[in-house]
Amino acid sequence: MSKNPSVIIVGRMNVGKSTLFNRLSENVKSITLDYEGVTRDFIKDTVSWQGRFFDLIDTGGISLRKSMDPIAEKSRQGVLDLIQTVDAVLFVCDAVAGLTSEDREIGKLLHKSGKKTILVVNKMDSKISAENIDEFRQLGFETILEISAEHSRGIGDILDLVSNMWPAKERALPEEKTGCNVVLLGKPNVGKSSLMNLLLNKERSIVSEIAGTTREAFSETISFYQEDIQVTDTPGIRRKHSVTEDLESLMVKSSFRALQETDIVLLLIDASESKLADQELKLAFYAFTEKHKGLILLFNKQDLATEDSKEFMASSIDEYKYLIKKVPQLNISCLTGKNVGRVLPLVKEVCERYNQWITEEDLTILFKAAIERKPLYHKKSILIVYGAKQIKKGPVTILLIVNESDWFGPSQLMFFENLMRANYNLVGVPVRFVLRKSWRAR
Ligand code: GDP
Ligand code: GDP
Fold first, then answer.
1. What is the pLDDT of residues 289-327, one digit of tens each?
2. Nearest to 312, CA basis, from 340, 346, 273
3. Backbone dihedral region of 98: left (phi > 0), alpha (psi from -120 to 50 degrees) or beta?
4. Fewest beta carbons less than 10 Å away: which of 161, 244, 406, 436?
5. How many whole angstroms separate alpha carbon 44 and alpha carbon 320?
6. Rounded to an integer, what distance in angstroms lies between the CA atom of residue 160 and that of residue 147?
7. pLDDT tens, residue by residue, 111-137
8. How many Å lie between the centroid of ligand 2 and the Cα of residue 280?
9. Ligand 2 binding pocket, CB closer than 6 Å
10. Whose CA is nearest to atom 10 of ligand 1?
11. pTM to 2 decimals?
């Protein structure tokens, strides 16, 4: 399928990038989330203008200025990498503020990137901006457009210019993914291959007592109620070398790759052991919270579980109840076959929840009513949600249109997540939020 040309909006803080993004994508409802930022997600919208289409990318206000802070620096690198992949750049400056040193730095960087850049001088709606406009020629860009995003002036010029930069093409719609990908994760010897074989009903991977016998991740597709479920067995996680070692290095490379590509993680835990290993919980937490995967916990080897091991397991789980209460658990035994028949139906349920759509109207009403009942504040400022809309399924991803995205921290988002969990069946699936600021109520 043909790809739309892509255009990225960059510029320093407060020059009007969000306002411009909202203006350009005003009439299009197909916001998608394609690029994953380090600290924020980039939003992509397919803009149509007179029968032509292009993808517009908003980078969520990541600064292009070099930073000492490693996280900010990583985000900046992410944007720089993204710039390399796009077809053109809209470089936004603020005519009221005039040309700044940061504008010059960004300008240099864009010249160096060699990307086709359109300089967009925004806020051309006051006397001072008319006085400042000439300065921006110093940046050395051939194409300069003067606009006022807030007053919708010059927006048509941008659309004309950008949409005519490439030959007209059919619109490229994102492909709908079907089926469900599941990956089996867990320590070596926990029973992943045994479960895989039971699910597939055949002796495929060699089951053995020696830890780590299954070397490479491999996938098989199982048809279950007309649905394709692709199950991947993995070599699992390595033994912990040190407490500080990060998860990525604890996981065998191919398992890590399998995790990236999957929808649902089946985490196998050995119920005959007296305690959950730290890395297993870390992995579960990482998959669910950071990678936004569906999660099911399977406590295997129930035939070997003793009263003691059950008690220990229950108490070690207790520490993680804030996560565990969100995900389904099943006690199984690959040896006796106990509850193995319930695994695929459970997978199917979680997959359906992972891929559900919630209507915009329901969500907006839910969120607005909740913060009317219980207003949320950042310092003394009230948080406003103008609208909430699910923009992606698998995982359920909610775009919140708010008055100020930076005011919505983890605890505020937790509030919205809990609200959703109380109102929809989201057992086993994460909820992901993307914030976008709007200067006006919708
Ligand atoms: P961003 O940080 O670059 O995304 O900037 P925003 O879109 O959030 O805009 C920053 C501020 O500039 C907001 O208070 C906007 O209302 C204001 N603003 C945006 N566009 C214009 C404009 O065309 N004219 C004027 N005067 N203000 C604008
Ligand atoms: P993997 O390394 O996670 O793929 O684990 P395997 O599937 O290779 O299993 C390791 C060992 O545990 C094998 O000897 C299996 O027969 C055994 N095993 C797997 N599931 C169970 C179970 O439910 N009960 C008992 N008693 N043994 C099991």
1. 888 899 999 999 999 988 888 888 888 777 778 888 899
2. 273
3. left
4. 244
5. 35
6. 13
7. 999 999 999 999 999 999 999 999 999
8. 17
9. 186, 188-194, 207-209, 213-214, 236, 300-301, 303-304, 333-335
10. 14
11. 0.67
